[in-house]
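Narrative summary of target 7.
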Amino acid sequence: MKMAVLLSGTGRTLDNFHERISNGSMRGSIEVVIANIPGVLGLQKAENYGYAAFHAGTNKAINRIIADYDIELVLLAGYLQLYTPPSSLQRAVLNIHPSLIPSFCGPGFYGMRVHRAVYARGVMVSGCTVHFADHNYDEGPIVAQKCVALADNDTPETIAAKVFAAECEAFPLAVNKVCDKGIDYFWQREADRK
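Modeled conformation, tokenized:
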């Protein structure tokens, strides 16, 4: 599948995608990388990897760029804004969330905010969820989840590190599942459960 990557920061997830596509453990190809914040490290990394890289601050501007590429799947890789895709990609946006949905998710739950909430609640298991995005935060069909055990001496920072390691496995796995089963499979599975 031809993919666009949307990011807002350092591009750590982009690094993971690039490495795994290069070694053959993740299917698909990255056609374009777009950041909603100018000058972020993720854009520099994208250029260094040889990907087309752009800054676009609005959904309209992002979608204008995406229209120039034959994109089949949009990957939200640390993208900290609600993205509204063009109608042709409405069901083709994959997001990763740093908790096991439906826990610690929804508006305001992202990044370290999630890990601090996990720490404050004292849960013993956290993880990440890759899901198709819709018009609400952290909703849409779940494609993959990965659990991590937490210890009594974990801090929000160590929880974040454990969860990011799980994300590095789960997101490529989810992309491969989508390549194998197709996008509609996950939406239909969701509809069949309701």
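The chain has two domains: 1-90, 96-194.
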